[in-house]
Amino acid sequence: MNVPIATNVLGTIGAICWSVQLIPQIVINHRRHSTEGLQPSMMLLWAAAGVPLGIYNIVSAFNVALRVQPQILTLLSLATWMQCCYYGKVGLVARSCI
Q1: How far is CA 95 from CA 13, 38, 84, 88, 91, in A?
Q2: What is the DSSP letter of 87?
Q3: pLDDT tens for each residue of 39-61
């Protein structure tokens, strides 16, 4: 059973939820001035994974929400990764970003 309206609505809701999942983490990091317990490599891998996913979604002509979602997730992942680098220990910032 294929219902295009329901598919688009639920797909859009899922894309929005998946896109904004890092916003609370970014806010918490900013308030605490710390990213303790958060792996910078995970954030960098999420950002890197968004590139091929975005290309695939665009080439496959998915709806607009699914085309934009990987770019938003990549941007937020990079913002979180930069927080990991910025709030990292003094002297270890360069090593913690790799």
Answers
A1: 38, 15, 11, 9, 9
A2: S
A3: 899 999 999 999 999 999 999 98
